[in-house]
Amino acid sequence: MAAAGFYHLTRSPLQQALPRLLARTLESGQRALILGTSQPALDALSTALWAQRVWLPHGSAADGDPDLQPIWLTTEAEPVNGARYLFLVDGAETGRLGEFDRAFDLFDGNTATALAAARLRWRAAKEAGHTLTYWQQTESGWRKNA
Fold it and tell me: Which among 9, 105, 119, 139 has most CB atoms closer than 10 A?
């Protein structure tokens, strides 16, 4: 079973919040798989990651060998780069959470549709037996809520 954290974005967009979590992932010696719902959205996210001040080496199928990529952007939940950390973005879903040590579900808390979809993913993860935490974005960072 995975430890699944749900990250309620309220103050900044995904392109600003995700890099900090990815930097911590790399600092801990882990690899990341970013699962999105469309290749164009992942391409835009890749561009945003390259624009960060912190070095976040990443790639996708267009870049070649996944073994060389500590962060892999994809629409398939297959950890081809050996990732143990899964980042779900743009409402991506998978029944493969249990194949990862940790999952991070980042969702836009400013839209009713995204909130409703995140609640459904929460219920599905809970029913599957995963350990869940809920984090809400604040002015000073993330606050863990019960």
Answer: 105
Stretches in the chain below the pLDDT threshold 50: none
CATH number among 3.40.50.2300, 3.30.390.30, 3.40.50.10110, 1.10.645.10, domain 3-145: 3.40.50.10110
Domain ranges of the chain: 3-145
For the chain, give the longest Cα–Cα distance. Answer: 41
Q: What is the pLDDT of residue 19?
A: 96
- State residue 139's pLDDT score: 87
